[in-house]
Every structure is written in C-alpha cells, then in structure tokens.
Amino acid sequence: MPIHPELYALPDGPVVAPIYGYSAHQAAGSVTRLHCHDAGQLFHVVRGSLAIDTERGTYFVPPERAVWMPARFAHETRYLTQSEVRYLYVQRDAAGALPAEPRILQMTQLLRELILAYMSFARAETAEGPAARIGAVILDQLVLQPVQGLDLPMPAEDRMRRLCERIARDPAVAPPLTEAAESCALSVRSFERRIQAETGLSFRSWCRQARLFRALELLASGCSVSDVAFRLGYEGPSAFVATFRKAFGVTPGRYFEPSLTS
C-alpha cells in the first residue's frame, strides 16, 4: 500500500484530524536541532537508526522500533545512518492515554500495517470515515505496545550531568567511583545515592549502559565489532559480544535487522 504523495511534505497549514502523517528519508549524520512540537510525535524507524537527545536522557531507535515524544517536549534528533522514517503527529487532545514522557516502543506487524494504511490517505481524508477509524485503532495499539529499555537517563544536577555527558561521549575513560564522586564534590555514599535517585541506576550500571549506547552508535556508523570492542575498552571482541547479547538478547551483528513481532 503506497504512501500518499502529499505525505512526503509537512502540512503547510492547520490539520483538522487528530493524527497526521509525514514520511521522509534522512541523510546519515543529519541533525534536527533542539525544538518541540505542539503535537505529540511518533517516529517509526523503517530503515536506519537515530538517537534523540532530551533533558531526561538519550533514546536510541534501531530499525522497526518507534519512539514516542510527547507534545512540547524539547528534543534533538541525530540520524546515525541513512534512515527512512514515518512520523505520526498526534494532537494533544487525542493523546491523553499516551505516555507523558518519551518512550521507546516495540513495533508489531499490525501496528506497522495500520500506520502504512493510514498514510495511504490524503490528509483531508483523515478527519472522518475509514481513515479516522484506522487512526483510532493506531492510538489504541500505541497504548498497548511494550516499552523497550533503550534509553540512557541523565541526572539533572549540573555537576553530575556534566560528568555523565563526558562519559557518554567517551565511556572508555569513565573515572573510578571515588574520582567521580570527588568531581561532584560529594562523598562516595552521597554520590551513589544521588545518581541512583536521579537515573534509576547505580554509577557502575549507568557507565555500562553508556558503553552499550556508544557501541550502538559506533555499530550504526559502520564500525566493526572488533573496532567497537577496542575503542570502548573491552578485553576483546568476545567480551563485548557477550555483554551486548546479555543486554539486548542478540549479537551485535543481528541487532540492526528488522525485528517485527506479530
């Protein structure tokens, strides 16, 4: 079912329907700078991969997953590879049952086909009739989709956030716990308690998550498993593969394969 040609451009005026669609191919390395929308936004990554940075943390989206971004939630999008993305914008009065914070969602074959069917209609045809009924089912399905743990939460406290941002850029040089606490002018005990409260993770777990996220970005950019293992300080490729499989359930080589559930 082809996407309606009108949906390869953003609307040039108000949209009456609760949901409107937009489809685009994004170049590897392109960035949409920090912004927000009056409507909620669903990114369905058909091919490629992207990362979305927010004040709450970073969300990584591989193929055939989706990320929900609530209305008026500031975010910056980085397209890590050549990507095909279908966007659904959900008006605020229609998004009441959807999460109030960003979420990575697993796509299903049903949801994928519903989105494709909805995007086969011109925008003027989606306010009522068959397209409107499909849109209502999409909203129901979005509420039911399981959440995937593909986010890297960031602390809000300034010194702690600056520390975590440095580690996220280069996890191989993450400092020992004592040094991390000292850099934030905290005792080890207070630092551990504070980072757990702000991110939901211990410092050690947060650093491990940061390494895995950086690994996803490097793999998406075309780096080999061996290169990633070396750059991130793993003992060798086998140690990296074992850690990756434990975290994501698949090997690095299979991670970027489309993963639609029924």
Write a concise synopsis of the structure shown.
The chain contains nine helices and eleven strands. With 262 residues, the protein is α+β, with helices and mostly antiparallel strands. It comes from Pannonibacter tanglangensis.
Word description of this protein:
With 262 residues, the chain is α+β, with helices and mostly antiparallel strands. It is 37% helix and 22% strand. The strands form two sheets. The chain has a six-stranded antiparallel beta sheet, with helices on one face. Strands 2-7-4-5-11 form a five-stranded antiparallel beta sheet, covered by helices on one side. Strand 4 and strand 5 form a beta hairpin. Helix 3 crosses helix 6, helix 4 (177-183) crosses helix 5 (188-199) and helix 7 (225-231) packs across helix 8 (237-248). The two termini are 19 Å apart. The mean pLDDT is 91. InterPro entries: AraC-bd, Homeodomain-like_sf, HTH_AraC, HTH_AraC-typ_CS, RmlC-like_jellyroll, RmlC_Cupin_sf, Tscrpt_reg_AraC-type_HTH. This is Helix-turn-helix domain-containing protein. Keywords: Activator, DNA-binding, Transcription, Transcription regulation. Residues 161-258 form the HTH araC/xylS-type domain.
